[in-house]
Amino acid sequence: MFIIRVCFIFFFFLCILPSTVFSSFTGLQMRGGEEEEIGKELFPDILREEAVSRLDELGQVSDADGHLERTFMSPASKKAINLVQSWMEDAGLRTWVDQMGNVHGRAEGMNTHAEALLIGSHLDTVIDAGIFDGPLGIVCAVSALKVLKISGKLGNLTRPVEVIAFSDEEGVRFQSTFLGSAAIAGTRPASALQISDKSGVTVQDVLKENSFDATEASYLQLKYDPQSVWGYVEVHIEQGPVLESVGLPLGVVKGIAGQTRLKVTVRGTQGHAGTVPMSMRQDPMTAAAELIVLLETMCKNPADFISYDGHCNGFSAESLAGSLVCTVGEISSWPGASNVIPGQVTFTVDLRTMDDMAREAIIFEISNRMYQTCERRSVSCIIERKHDAEAVVCDPGLSSELKSAANSALKRVAGEIQEKVPVLMSGAGHDAMAMSHLTKVGMLFVRCRGGISHSPAEHVLDDDVWIAGLAILAFLETKL
């Protein structure tokens, strides 16, 4: 009798444990008889286990020891390109790498001449990155297409579907985001090839080193014909805490904040740290410190600074307080010795808000005040605009389709649900911003723990990876 009871307990836990664990991770209750459906319809072996394994594997491809770092055309990025291309081929896709290092995988479907659905995200990372920012969207899309291949439905797509792993979204090396997606969208001129990094190496130099043509002609040929594209979809981690706070794994994005990056160079008079009297110094470091504090104060309280003199008509300065953010991410000095008053200080500014007109007004005002401060301190100030991206409104129709797909994915794993898939704004930039100049765009956000991103602490639950893959699969099934 004792043996029978032990066997019964073992069988009981074997049957209910998977659904119990799943429910604890997602906050959703699985319906009875789920085990059989999981095996037949939800493809956990591909959309969960294999997808998570691939994210982990890609997360080990780094140019640095001890942390994840994979920048444009680095040795690690080339390894990542080969890895992703092999996964695309495994999914039955025709693959190629274009002249900017973007990796493409395409399923032609039944009508090769129809407008194509593009799905993408980026392969590059920030320094000391997490493993989900960018690769999650690539892996989920490839996994969903692999399911269609295994199911014998890949050839039944009514329009071509192309997955693109973009080569540079973060802009770490060249301080110019969207190098990969902007080339395809046609938003950058061929002069982008002459953008240089801190060492003076240009984009063109790096491409040639990696056996790409890197000519103006080859660059301009990357632009897609808008008439050949139906729309663009991107899956990305939220990089914020909203989805976790409402207990749901997916959300639909309704828009993306506009962004401007500035490079501020302050020049003074270089001198000996011990011999130049304080009253006679033209110190660019202290001037830069005042400029940075000014920037922070203005972005915290924009209504106290913006003057309504024709530069900010059409928006409320008070409304900026909820969406305006400003960040100084880099600062350097020359010659950078402890016993020398520096001759030059350079720092970067990242400024974002949902309203493009408001962003221009803020830049106008902060620039004027920076110049005034530098003049008062007898130092020179040069402000360069290194990057601009207009705010993007996602296509309502495409967003509605993605919302239905997200709901379908949740119902497939949990049955009837009471919660509605939330609609969110994105404060972070995405390749969808560049692609919006080519075609209509839509985005799905995936819950991330604590809203943490751009950090090794970045984390997405295995089951949330699964549900994201199911959502893309449900979306693709509407194209059969």
Automatic annotation (TrEMBL):
Enzyme nomenclature, EC number: 3.5.3.9
Enzyme class: hydrolase
Record keyword Manganese present: yes
BP-aspect Gene Ontology terms: purine nucleobase metabolic process
Residue ranges constituting the Peptidase M20 dimerisation domain according to the UniProt record: 258-372
Subcellular location: Endoplasmic reticulum
Cytoplasm found in the keyword field: no
Catalytic reaction equation(s): allantoate + H2O + 2 H(+) = (S)-2-ureidoglycine + NH4(+) + CO2
GO molecular function: allantoate deiminase activity; metal ion binding
A Pfam family this chain is assigned to: M20_dimer
Signal peptide: 1-23
Superkingdom classification of source: Eukaryota
GO cellular component, one term: endoplasmic reticulum
Key words of the record: Endoplasmic reticulum, Hydrolase, Manganese, Metal-binding, Purine metabolism, Signal
Named cofactor requirement(s): Mn(2+)
Family: Belongs to the peptidase M20A family.
Assembly notes: Homodimer.
Name of this protein: allantoate deiminase
Annotated organism of origin: Papaver nudicaule
